[in-house]
Write a structure and sequence with these properties.
95 residues; mainly alpha
Length: 95
């Protein structure tokens, strides 16, 4: 669950950074502890690729949050009782 939270925070930071660039705002000064905790995000190859995909294909923050929420459900092993639930899971995680 910590990794999922790290992923959500990282994606939110990508969108926050994009919003700040669009508004021509200067980034706020970070304290050294916060900077060290978040610096790994800047160098993570998966997040760098995701950042590229977000901007290249105009992926919405809502779309990515929906996928993350559905994948977080994978952490709890669940046997679906109805076919409709399986279809909804597929819709949330793949489309």
């Amino acid at each position: 669950r910590l990794r999922m939270q790290w992923g959500r925070d990282s994606i939110a930071e990508i969108y926050d950074h994009a919003d700040n660039n669009n508004n021509n705002e200067q980034p706020q000064q970070r304290d050294s502890i916060l900077h060290s905790l978040t610096s790994s995000r800047e160098h993570n190859p998966t997040l760098r690729s995701l950042n590229y995909a977000i901007h290249r294909h105009q992926l919405t923050h809502r779309f990515l949050r929906r996928i993350m929420e559905a994948r977080e459900g994978d952490l709890d092993v669940v046997q679906y009782d109805r076919m409709g639930d399986v279809a909804q899971y597929g819709e949330d995680t793949v489309s």
